[in-house]
Design a protein that fits this description.
Pfam family, one: Pkinase
Protein name: Protein kinase domain-containing protein
Radius of gyration: 34 Å
Largest sheet: none
Keywords: ATP-binding, Coiled coil, Nucleotide-binding
Bound molecules: zinc ion
InterPro entries: Kinase-like_dom_sf, MAPK, Prot_kinase_dom
Organism: Culex pipiens pipiens (Northern house mosquito)
Length: about 290
């Protein structure tokens, strides 16, 4: 079952290598994969199977040492040692995006560490200069906890990264045993959130940054809608053409059938008349002849 813990693309190497126990470090690995995906706009380790998944990871991080694989099961360790050793190629992370700054790559390298015990902790990751800078940007314009008086300096909240007052309790998850129940609980949760008037992620919809984001989204939507309209018109034209072709083919077939019934001489006469709509008169046998 351990293999099913996380979607394969985001699965930590210790789970891929059959570790019997795992810690919160598996989540740091997953977040690292998603961080890399956001930078590169594509899945960082997109493999078809768990074995290939491990292969892609070692291509980036290099072959792990025996010490790094101490949580792995015997079979996985043997498999890894049988393969030709690979050197790390972490500098490839700089090519993910123009946004892959030294700080970003530094944080990414600390999240994507093979040995879970050497992987950066959540607390240390939150204190990393990259996250710190993002946090400052967020509180300088988009948050709801700080404000700028009409005349004067921005007033910042006392705490930028408040800790939860109580540890997260996942007991409620245990009663969710069917998809239907999950749907009902989600619906209830959303309805409750709407009643409290809370804005998701504490984004301030009045901030300039949010407005520019929203207007960009509107422009993108308009472009998308006009593109869809063009495609609909093109599809309709194609359909009409196909229908016309089918009609012509049917007319041709009728003419041929007609020819078999009344002899080839008469068909020549009907062919001369092809421009006109093919009605009952055209199909009727010529005067003096009756179909048998
Ligand atoms: Zn704030």
């Amino acid at each position: 079952m351990t293999q099913e813990v996380v979607t394969q693309y985001y699965r930590a190497p210790e789970i891929l290598m059959g570790a019997r126990h795992y810690s919160a470090a598996v989540d740091v690995w997953s977040v690292g994969c998603i961080f890399g995906e956001l930078l590169g706009r594509r899945i960082l380790f997109q493999a078809q199977s768990p074995v290939q998944q491990l292969e892609l990871i070692t291509e980036l991080l290099g072959t792990p040492t025996l010490e790094d694989m101490r949580h792995a099961c015997e079979g996985a360790r043997t498999h890894m040692l049988r393969r030709a050793p690979k050197p790390p190629s972490l500098s490839a992370l700089y090519t993910l995006s123009t946004h892959a700054t030294h700080e970003a790559v530094h944080l990414l390298c600390q999240m994507l560490v093979f040995d879970p015990d050497k992987r950066i902790s959540v607390i240390d990751a939150l204190a990393h200069p990259y996250v710190d800078e993002g946090r400052l940007r967020y509180h300088s314009c988009m948050c709801k906890c700080c404000y700028t008086p009409s005349a004067g300096m921005r007033q910042y909240a006392a705490e930028f990264e408040p800790s939860a007052q109580q540890p997260f309790d996942d007991l409620w998850e245990r009663k969710l045993t069917s998809v239907q129940q999950v749907k009902e609980e989600m619906h209830k949760f959303i309805a409750e959130q709407l009643q409290t008037g809370r804005v998701p992620l504490c984004i301030n919809p009045q901030s300039a940054a949010f407005k520019s984001f929203a207007s960009f989204s509107r422009q993108a939507m308009k472009k998308f809608q006009s593109e869809m309209k063009k495609r609909r018109v093109a599809a309709l034209e194609q359909l009409q053409q196909q229908q016309q072709q089918q009609q012509q083919q049917q007319q041709q077939q009728l003419l041929q059938q007609c020819g078999q019934l009344i002899g080839s001489n008469s068909v020549d006469r009907i062919k001369l008349n092809r421009g006109a709509p093919l009605g009952a008169a055209a199909l009727a046998p010529p005067v003096g002849m009756t179909a048998q």
